[in-house]
Every structure is written in structure tokens, then in C-alpha cells.
TrEMBL record:
Full protein name: Enoyl-CoA hydratase/isomerase family protein
CDD domains on file: crotonase-like
Pfam families: ECH_1
Similarity comment: family membership: Belongs to the enoyl-CoA hydratase/isomerase family.
């Protein structure tokens, strides 16, 4: 398409539906829609475009193929310190913009959502997951702080006890279990995810736009008031990128072996 969303990479697709519905599709299906470093900035720009787009009333975001989004592509080269700092600022803007946009955002979680992918899914106003989709917070498994959304939104969605359990353990949930505990709005059979999301979007697009946007603004004050917690967790995550645990997790991934975190072998950790 030849409008403000045309960034030319092909990694993020946009499609306009009737009644001002915009569909955003993360498009790296061969890599389960994981993000390269440049894609973090591209996604940030997409949300900035949504905010200033007068043609759009409702946004639906989903993933191409079998996954929603599995976070940062760990097969790419290690981020430099400059990359990490740039990502911190990009992510701060991305989260703030998603919360500030007054148009309703619906996530159609058609498959695995991990890390950044789960962040995007849960920061949407309405989240519709495949009942068999795998949802994993995931950060602690790769030796970094859960910094991109968990401290901000999980406690409001499911309470502190469930938050600490799933965020500290990185244990996976299915979409059905996520709905049961209140982490997502709805779970439906996989083939119904996008149609149901578009159906809800159509309903909202026909509603009172002022009432919907003002209601979202009021509800999101719970989240915007908690932005200092988010910024702290994000900064701690970026610090972890320079740590030995993160380096070991990436090396273990490349060598296809279990992770042996150095911090688990130091004083205060389990005996060798």
C-alpha cells in the first residue's frame, strides 16, 4: 500500500479493512515472526503512524503463519552496548505510544507469543488467543530481567502471585489457561482467532468513537501511572545484556545445549 505505513521492508504488513479497521501482520513466518534489531524500530514507527492516522478507528495485530511473535531473533549477532541503549529508548517509546493511542487495539494471538511478542499481545486493549497457543514470558530463561512489559501489566491482569510465578519461572501457558487466569480476554479455536478479532473490531468501529477513546484513556491511566516501574525493569533488562548469563544463554542456544548460568554457580547459588 502507498500510505504512511509503507516502510518497504516486508517484515511488517498492513491492510485496511472496511469501517476504518487496520490489520498489522508481523511477517517473518520462517523465523516464527521473531524480530531483528531494525524491526524493533520499525514496530515503534508503526505505532507512531497509527496514532496520527485519521483513517483508522481500530487496530488488529497478528502474526503471519503459525506464530504471533516469538520475541527477539536470538540467531542474529549479539547486540552491542549502543544497540542495547537504542533498544531501551525504542521500547520506552513503543510502550508509551501503545498506551497513549486512543484507538482500540486488538491482538489476534494465532500462535506462540514470547517475550516482545507477548508484550505486544498483552498491551493490546483486547487480546484473543488460540486456545492451544503457547504463551511464554521467557526473559529469565535467557538471563535477562523481564523488562518489556511484565512489571507494568501482569500484576493488573492476574495479580502479584500469578505474576511472580509465571514471570520468574518462564513457565508456558496455553491460550485457554491464559483466559482462565485473566491474562487474555478470550481464547477460541485457532482457526477462529483472526475472524473473531476482526468481528470485535467491526463492532467497535461502528460504536461511539468518542466514548470508546475516552474510556480507553481513563482505563489506561492505571498503566500510565505505573510507567516508572516499566522504565526501571527495562533499564535492568538492558544492563543484563552485558552480563555473563545472557552471553551463556545465547551460546547455549547456538550449540543446542542446556544453559549453565554463571550466576547459578557463584556464591549463594547451588553448589557445583
Amino acid at each position: 500500500m502507498t500510505d504512511l505505513y509503507n516502510h518497504g521492508t516486508g517484515n511488517v504488513l498492513t491492510e485496511r479493512h472496511d469501517n476504518g479497521i487496520l490489520q498489522i501482520t508481523i511477517n517473518r513466518p520462517d523465523r516464527y515472526n521473531s524480530l531483528t534489531l531494525p524491526m524493533f524500530e520499525e514496530m515503534n514507527q508503526i505505532w507512531a503512524d497509527v496514532e496520527r492516522d485519521d483513517q483508522t478507528r481500530v487496530v488488529v495485530i497478528t502474526g503471519a503463519g503459525k506464530a504471533f511473535c516469538t520475541g527477539m531473533d536470538v540467531a542474529q549477532p549479539d547486540p552491542t552496548p549502543q544497540d542495547a541503549l537504542a533498544m531501551l529508548e525504542t521500547e520506552r517509546k513503543r510502550v508509551a505510544t501503545m498506551l497513549r493511542i486512543e484507538k482500540p487495539i486488538i491482538s489476534a494471538i494465532n500462535g506462540p507469543a514470547v517475550g516482545y511478542g507477548l508484550s505486544t499481545a498483552l498491551l493490546a486493549d483486547i487480546s484473543i488467543a488460540a486456545d492451544d497457543a503457547v504463551l511464554i514470558e521467557g526473559h529469565t530463561k535467557v538471563g535477562v530481567t523481564a523488562g518489556d512489559h511484565a512489571a507494568l501489566i501482569w500484576p493488573l491482569l492476574v495479580g502479584m502471585a500469578k505474576t511472580k510465578y509465571y514471570v520468574l519461572t518462564s513457565e508456558k501457558l496455553t491460550g485457554a489457561e491464559a483466559e482462565r487466569i485473566g491474562l487474555v480476554s478470550l481464547s477460541v479455536p485457532r482457526e477462529q482467532v483472526l475472524p473473531r478479532a476482526l468481528e470485535v473490531a467491526s463492532q467497535l468501529a461502528r460504536g461511539s468513537q468518542q466514548a470508546l477513546r475516552f474510556t480507553k484513556r481513563a482505563l489506561n491511566s492505571w498503566l500510565t501511572n505505573a510507567m516508572p516501574q516499566h522504565e526501571l525493569s527495562s533499564a535492568l533488562e538492558i544492563l543484563d545484556f552485558a552480563g555473563a548469563d545472557y552471553a551463556e544463554a545465547r551460546q547455549a542456544f547456538r550449540e543446542k545445549r542446556p544453559v549453565d548460568f554463571p550466576s547459578a554457580r557463584t556464591a549463594g547459588g547451588p553448589a557445583n
